[in-house]
Amino acid sequence: MSTNNPLHAKPPYGMIAILFIGAFVSLLNETLLNVALPSIMTEFEVKPTAVQWLSTGYMLVNGILIPASAFFIQRFSDKKLFITAMFLFTVGTFTASIAPEFSVLLAARMIQASGSAIMMPLLMNVMLAAFPVEKRGTAMGMFGIVMITAPAIGPTLSGWLVEHYSWRMLFNIVLPIALLTLILAIFKLKDVTPQRAIKLDVLSLILSSIGFGGLLYGFSTAGDNGWDDPFVYGTIIVGAVALITFIMRQLSMDEPLLEFRIFKYPMFALSSAISIVIAIAMFSAMILMPIYVQTIRGISPMDSGLLMLPGAIVMGIMSPITGRLFDKYGARTLAVIGLTITVITSYFFSRIGMETAYSTLVILYTFRMFGMSMVMMPVMTNGLNQLPAINNPHGTAMNNTLQQVSGAIGSALLITVMNNRTKTRTEELLADTAGTMNSSPPATGTEIEIPQEIVNQAMLNGINFSFLISTLIAVIALILALFIKRVKPDYGKENDSDNSDAAHATTTEN
């Protein structure tokens, strides 16, 4: 049983706390800058397409390095790896805070991302090694506080800071925390996970970078540039071809960069599928709500951020509670309840109008986040529990990679749905207006000034329709959740490098 691991008797809580802080500031930094982009655009006199790279580029570097994190975690010690990652993040943060021009700021964000990409997989891997299966739910629930609340409070915090201070303050508040974490890591961090003398396959790394990087860039820019942009579909095609080649190469290798054979474990494969669907659905509120609140309703960015804050707080409170419930009842019960709440609240969001009360929006969003908090970590932990310990680095790397890619796909999908529906509804409203006024619609190609009321009504219709699509996506996840079973790995096979037979996993009904 799991008690044969000496770490399980006394988990390294001090080390985990240091890793928590590092992961928290790196994840917080991922969404912290979004609200400040207009201010940065004004100061450096750059176009929206250029300033967007501060977010897109950060995500791209994460998408490129996270698949390689399994190699780094197996090859290098926990202490050296975390110190290197934290050092890069700290250097990037300091450089960004004093950046004299936009190119320096962009380079600083890339350096930040190169450190951030390693922190989350490393933390998850340490926690899987440090806790027995029967206690992982509680541990991963605490991890959920970092994973869920840090990105959620980013827009609220940045909205307040940008409203009262310069955008540089966003980096200035992160810098001392990052520096303190680095110092603590140097003196307090120990090695927990075992290392293996494996070699880096350079071709796999190149194919992975092109594959995941191409898909992330293509999907993340499709919402703005349109699917007919040659650069959008070109990068998606190149990324897809490279990714297929990468997967085929990994399946033929004894020591792959990223182990795809872990999908032979049924509960890990199912948890990955549910996580992808949930990530796509979750982006609906994160992307569409600010557009609705600020553009259509004219509510300030600060109040827009505050609208989402109760939901972030609820998720933070619920994460450890959900973890304990997972240890007791398993993932299926929590996932079904949570996804049912998500489906219902998503449907209500598809019915919001011009006069929907601010308090109603806060309550709906908070309940939606409450539902989400019962799904993500339990489902992910249940899937990881079925993997032998030797595959934990690959499982955590795969989960983080899939979240990045599905997040980009979800963003592009929902923005495209909203834009297309808005365009169609605008044409319908203009035709109705022309008919009411007994006049002919303007000739094709004629430039007309569309009344703001029609623009807002059409955009609201587009947002409603996108939330309806999100509701249907959440229903798919709910159906998949019905097939979840509680699992534990066969510890007799835990250290066996041949994981081709998923039958070694012991599966019991939830």
TrEMBL record:
Name of the molecule in the record: DHA2 family efflux MFS transporter permease subunit
Principal localisation: membrane
Tree of life domain: Bacteria
Domain (Major facilitator superfamily (MFS) profile): residue spans on this chain: 15-489
Family, as annotated: Belongs to the major facilitator superfamily. EmrB family.
Sequence intervals crossing the membrane: 12-33, 53-74, 81-99, 111-131, 143-161, 167-187, 199-219, 231-248, 268-293, 305-326, 333-350, 356-377, 465-484
Cellular localisation: Cell membrane
InterPro entries per the UniProt record, alphabetical: EmrB-like, MFS, MFS_dom, MFS_trans_sf
UniProt entry keywords in alphabetical sequence: Cell membrane, Membrane, Transmembrane, Transmembrane helix, Transport
Topology versus the membrane: Multi-pass membrane protein
Region annotated Disordered, chain positions: 491-510
Biological source species: Gracilibacillus oryzae
GO cellular component, one term: plasma membrane
KW Lyase (keyword) present: no
GO molecular function: transmembrane transporter activity
Taxonomic placement: Bacteria, Bacillati, Bacillota, Bacilli, Bacillales
